Each structure stands twice: as C-alpha cells, then as structure tokens.
Amino acid sequence: xxxxxxxxxxxxxxxxxxxxxxxxxxxxxxxxxxxxxxxxxxxxxxxxxxxxxxxxxxxxxxxxxxxxxxxxxxxxxxxxxxxxxxxxxxxxxxxxxxxxxxxxxxxxxxxxxxxxxxxxxxxxxxxxxxxxxxxxxxxxxxxxxxxxxxxxxxxxxxxxxxxxxxxxxxxxxxxxxxxxxxxxxxxxxxxxxxxxxxxxxxxxxxxxxxxxxxxxxxxxxxxxxxxxxxxxxxxxxxxxxxxxxxxxxxxxxxxxxxxxxxxxxxxxxxxxxxxxxxxxxxxxxxxxxxxxxxxxxxxxxxxxxxxxxxxxxxxxxxxxxxxxxxxxxxxxxxxxxxxxxxxxxxxxxxxxxxxxxxxxxxxxxxxxxxxxxxxxxxxxxxxxxxx
Length: 387
What we know:
The chain has 387 residues and is mostly beta strands. The chain has helices spanning 68-78, 196-209, 369-375, and strands spanning 2-8, 13-15, 19-27, 45-60, 91-95, 99-107, 112-120, 129-130, 134-145, 151-161, 214-220, 223-230, 234-236, 240-246, 253-270, 276-291, 297-303, 312-313, 317-330, 354-365, 381-386. Strand 9 and strand 10 (151-161) form a beta hairpin. The longest helix is centred in the middle third of the chain and has 14 residues, at 196-209. It is elongated, with a radius of gyration of 28 Å. This is RAB6A-GEF complex partner protein 2.
C-alpha cells in the first residue's frame, strides 16, 4: 500500500499570476509486525510514474460551440494518460502542461519520497466561480499508476481569484507616485524593481484604500426621499460597505428601506447553429433592513463576504456587483411630523405606501489570499491510498 499526501504550502487560495506550490509525498506505511513476507520483492511497493498539473473545468447548461481555442486548451489533457480517467463534466478551460514527478519509484516499508510541484496560474485565467449559469472550478491533479493497473488520481481543489480585472477602468482613483522624482541617496540600498504581479497588487491596494465620497439624491415622482452618501466606490473582499442616509432633505416620508449586495451574472453563449443565447441572473448575498420612520439620519453597514467572487469578464460571461435599494414611502400627511419616540404619538391604523427600487453599481476586488484563508476554514492537506 502506498499513501499519497498533497500539502499546499501557501494554502488553497491564489490570485491569477501567482505560483502554486504543493508538496507531494509518496510513502510506504510499515506493515503489521505479524505479517511475514513471502519473498524479497513483497517488501517493496512500486509505482510506474506520477505527474501533476492544474486543471480548470467550465460547466454550463447551454451546449457550447466547439472552437479551436477549446481544442488547444484540451490537448495537454488528451496527450497524457489522465484523459482516460477524467470524469469531470464540462469542458477544459485551462490545463497546464503536465510535469513528471518521477518514473519507476520503489519504496521499502517506512520509506517516503517528497516532490515539490510549482506552477504559475496564467494571468488570463478565469477565476473560480460557482454561479447559476456558469461554473469555473480549479483542481491540482496528481496522477499515478502501477504497472498493468488503472490510473489513480488525487484531486486537490484550488480557489483562484482575479487580480487585474477592472483595474484599468478606475485607475484614476489612485494618485500617481512621485517616488522617482525624489533626490537620490547614494547611501541607500538600490530598490529592486517590482514585478508586474506586485505592481498589480499595489494598484489594487491603492484603489480600494482611496476614499472618494459620492452623494446621491434619491427621489420619486412625489419628491425627495433621502440623500445617500457612499464613502468609496471600490471594496476588497471582507470589507464593510459603509454609507449614510440623510432624511432631513426629504419631502416624502420614508417608512423603511432595505439594501442588498447583489451580483449580476450575464452570459452570451454562441451555440453550434450560430445563435447567441443571452441570459442574466441576479444573486443576493447580504441584506440590511431598517425602519427609518421619524429618523433624521441612519447608516448602512453591509459586509462583503470572503467566499464571493470579485467582478470579472470572460468571453463566456461577465460578473458585476451592485447595491440594490428598496424604499417604502408614504404620502400620508399624518407622518409628516412623526416622532415615534415621543410619548402619546400613535401610528395610523391604515397606511398607503409606495415602493421604489434603485440599483447602484460598485466595484468588488480581490484581497490577499492570507486574509481569506484566515477567515474561511480550508483543508490544505489531501490524501489518497493506493492498495
């Protein structure tokens, strides 16, 4: 019996352009003391070969058009022994070139061999996403085989987040650095040039840290409902969306309101007959509901979950984020000077209301993988027994 243990060195969450590092150990557990070997060859366990690669599967309900790009992505899988045992549904969106770990490995009882697998996730890779219309799932696949035996697979799930999508759209929100204009100091160590991946992370940090309050006057056909202030338009995963409502400028009474964090999943899939199928789904995550009758000011605190996927765009689909507002207003004159906290005030028995909705687009970006790993419990060690 041989046990395969795969341990992700940096955890199971990565950004596009980052290097996945995995420690893969092949061990031969000691046999029970009462077992007697019949021959010298019974002591050893052997494997013919083992390889590892990163695979991304795309799953959708609509039949996709077979094109040259898909064929190019799949040839790395089809040219290896892994193609005969891959049972995952969907098409191969990404398959890195397999790396051979060893050939003809023999282990005695208690012996083990450890191999380090390193692979960079391409910058143009789609992120991990489990939507209603499209799903992208990543796995690190370790394949091995005994002589004249079927191939065994150890599948290690990965989560990949986008790092550059949308940065060019709002790059003007962050100030340009003037570090190069500073006087040179010959006594300071020369700073190493940053890689494009580090520059993208720094740009992402600058954009999400920039505070640019925006004010929105919310009104309907009867007049002004409230003035809403959003302190910044871009957020990282795990951050709180904070805003304020000012009802002192209102000419229409707002009884209650709710704010939801929603993502808009839109696909445009070309089928084999040439027709394009466009679909859209709205998914709600967090929601805040408040009764604001008689209030002059109130606030919005809406967290962005760590398990969601930031905005991204692929040839197959696009994902965008927004705040969805619902205001319940009333033109009843009995509510114009309502102060529910005062003694003796009594609400009317009947109240005619009107509901208005409004959606405000926002930007949601990735955060550092270490923060996600700390916030979510993930398994970094996976095992497989070959008998």
